[in-house]
Amino acid sequence: MAFNIGLSGLRAATSDLNVTGNNIANAGTAGFKQSRAEFADVYAASVLGSGSNPQGSGVLLSDVSQLFNQGNINYTQNALDLAINGNGFFVTSNNGEVSYTRAGYFGTDRDGFMVNNFGYKLQGYAVDDAGNLQNGVVSDIQIQTASQSPRPTEEITQTFNLNSTNTVPTTTPFDPTDPTSYNSSTSTNIYDSQGNAHVFTQYFVKTAANTWNMNVLIDGRNPADPSLTTPYTANVGFTTAGQLDLTTLSSPELTVNADGTITMPAGAWVPAASDGGTPPVWAGNGADPAAAGVTLDLRSSTQFSSAFAVSSISQDGYTTGELSGLEIDDTGVIFARYTNGQSKVQGQIVLANFANVQGLTPVGKTAWVQSFQSGEPVVGTPRSGTLGALQAGALEDSNVELSDQLVNLIVAQRNYQANAKTIETESAITQTIINLR
After folding, report:
1. Which of 214, 211, 201, 202 is nearest to 166 (CA)?
2. Cα(137)–Cα(247) distance, rounded to whole angstroms?
3. Residue 1's pLDDT is what?
4. Are both 390 and 307 inside the same structural domain?
5. In Å, how far are 153, 204, 424 from 267, measured between CA atoms?
6. Are residues 282 and 221 in the same domain?
7. Low-confidence ranges of the chain (pLDDT < 50)
């Protein structure tokens, strides 16, 4: 009996050493979760029960459980490295074989798919052609590396203040080359269908108290006929309180809309370019404006007794852009940044969690697969429900505490020695009996 008890102790101590050694070996493995050997005592069963004073029959390894406590977050230089701060696992697919991991070594393959260091594809919500997330449809996340197509300008939103103390210019008629013929001016870039930038310039000329002319040139030319420098003109008036008076808006070339915005119809602008000669000859560049024209929103503008100033201006057009970088926020949304200053959603990473993470089956490569004991995965976006947040440019360190594991080594070694001593003692006793005469 003592031999079997001692042997079970040796086997248990060996298992403990194996588990501890594996923890130590993976102390530097990102996303690794340490394990512990769990033991139970053994008693011999009899037909009529174990009796009131049963003798033990040794020890057995009841389970090797994993400890899924959080590892430290370690920041790296790779923007696509990802760490989970909280609950959840990354979902990866290897030709349809789904596995779960906490190791966030991610990059892109030659087709633009986000993959880990074993080539498994990261799962998440993709986007449609319009850039809208397809929530609820989990698929491989693919980064679109192609150039971003240009977008012609459709809307300009502008807020400015005209100085109410300005006087009517004495120089007439308006001449864009003569600053004495107008009071103020401002410019912004707008774009045609090919992504070419054009300078949209407004010249403000006071005509009477609370009344102004807004003269518009594009590239210093007439918008419809680039061979001319005559501007489009709109009448702009203000109330006695200095607010824009929408009832005064009018223009012979531009369309004043019912909501107070002003539209330059598509046919009223011919995108043009210079031949670079002296003097330059301007002609259409072969591109088109936005099909809906260009709408100018001045409704927040004012006329107060202060210097002319443009407090805000924005337009929705842009030129073509090349992919310059990727950013991932803490909810897993992937943004692509382009050289034209634009950004575009490329997808959203999802996480999975389980009712019993202890029940997951480890399959190596710092990955787990679902089992009957783990239950079905609950899939969602980071920071939703009980799922943790993502940290881009970082990795989760192994949760192995080396000092604890080294102490475990000492304990396992002592246990092994003690159980070996049990066998040695039983052997000596047996030899004594054999030597009886």
Report:
1. 211
2. 50
3. 61
4. no
5. 14, 24, 102
6. yes
7. none
